[in-house]
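Batch 3, record 17
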Amino acid sequence: MADALRIADVHLTPLQADHITEAMLDIAEAWFTLSIVARNTGSTPLFVMTSVRRLQYDEARRALVVELSEQHAVETRDAGLPFPPRIEEIAPGKEITITYRLSSPTTIVDNASGHSRPRFVHIPQDVATIDCIIAADTTPPPANEYLVSHEPLPDLRQWGYVIQRSVRADV
Amino acid sequence: MAIQIPLHVGNPDVVFADLVDIVRCDAGLTVSEPTLFARQVAYNQKQPAVPSSTRILEIINSPVNVYISGMGYNDVIPGVGSISASAGLTRSRTSLEEPISIWYDITDAAGFHWTVKDKDWQNIYMPRQVLLYHELAHAWHDIQRDLATNEHDQEVQAIADENTFRGQLGLTLRNGTAHKGGTGIPDHGGITFPKCSPEKKGWSPNWKCPKLAAVATAALETPNTIEIAALRRARAEYRQVSMWGTLIAQPALDLYSKFGPHLARTMQQQPALREAMLWFVVRPTFHLLTVAEAYLAAETDTPALTRTINAILQGYVSGMAGTRWSAAALREAADDARVAAGMLTSGAAPSTRPDFSNPPDHLFSNIAREILAVNGPRPAAFAWGFEGLAVFLHSAAQLIDGSPSATDALLSALGAWVARIPLPPPSELRVVDMRHELTVLAGRIFTRPDTRLQFARHLLAHWTGASSSELQIVLGDLGYLDRATSEVHHG
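Prediction for the assembled complex:
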């Protein structure tokens, strides 16, 4: 069962300087690697989404919400490069480490007030908590390795279960 | 209409450099700043047309505004989420009057590299410029009103255009119908982008805001100094402290990109000017930054803070002892810095080309003339900076003269100077932003109660409109004003 999935650990580490390119320095003063350790504590293989599909900042809780799930995906009229998410299998008793690079500040463009304005979320100053949400299931989403033009991206909003763990953001 | 690059989120230097690559270094692509907060791209084709340059020309000549923002890998776009889920996004119009907005990742997937599929389903590289071209293809079809009716056909449309650009550059073509992509090292073709060379001699294709430290590097004769490291760190930190911070810093950095390189070249040609810039501008700027940060980090004036500031001032003065300049020269430079600040504030037109023949005479007013000679809006940051340097240089002169109150004088002037930090123009000081902005500023910059109060007065004096009472309430809530100071009124 998908509830056999455990988020065993979540931590942030500063990205080594030799991994930071000039372009990365152009947009942020510091970079971190967010590592999420996902463990299959059950006896059957689990399939987990390992791509970050959504990132949010909850200002009231000073929480960075990292969603490796499409359950909160919204309908959009935006065009772009609609990359499907990565799905990885975790064998029973095994774990994988999912990594994601985060910049400090992370720019959250907000247009709630009718005009576009940036909010700069600095790590660790503005982030007390990291909420990790991961989608998983015992069966993978429909195989769709070779997506073609008239084949829509799989709608994974209903796929699997989600588990969540909130941790204090210690760098 | 035009292509516009918003300054407060758009990373304009990188976006413009990518557009230059797309027009293959045609020097006819130019940029102007119609306002403090956006760059407008114009194009008067000077090189023989190629498909990619024609596409840019068509978009710029169209009746639609296209806003392009260069984003970080995990930056968040309104209504969508993180840019990392899709590398780039184009928001099409819902009405003909609306602009089109493009956001694209300029960090190459935070250094992991974006990849897409070729005809054999091998991973090939998606360079930043190709990614932007792909998004511009979506925009172009929106402008043409021939945008495909569903997301997947829109992709096919954009991939076809992208492949025209790839073919033009000799890059491996993308699979015409495949959405699949992600990050990682490409299976073949490497991670290079064919850079262009300009046909017009003397024009640099690598248009980019010159390094912050162009003047400092010319003065110090090497970029590897603690002064330059500190200035770079400060730029990164304060430019993105908040939206107001960006709205203040980015136009100043933009303006610097106009006069800085010329000033740096003049310094390289005139050793006396280089030396004067080093001792009267660059080192004092570094020391002023250090002093101001020490001041702001303290809860209040303490003997320890006084000792720290005295040590910084002494360090500068000790260095000056090895030069030919005296306290009188410092005092004259301080007075000139005040004059220059006044020139910048009033916007007095430059009379003649700056004469740097006898530095440090009129050093600051000559720099002000350089700044005033630049066309376009003039941010207030330089006037404020010169005022700070005037305070520092004057205190240094006092110390050389043996005055026991030099450090105290600097300390007492610092708070007022910091609190007079330039503000965004009234049109950008919005009620909806103020609580968030003031919260950030209280937490990061104005941690000292006395400086918070001084800043509150400064802000109230510049706040226009009917919402000043609301501002006072927010200032009270956030600890800028207390009951005793609630009599502070707008104006």
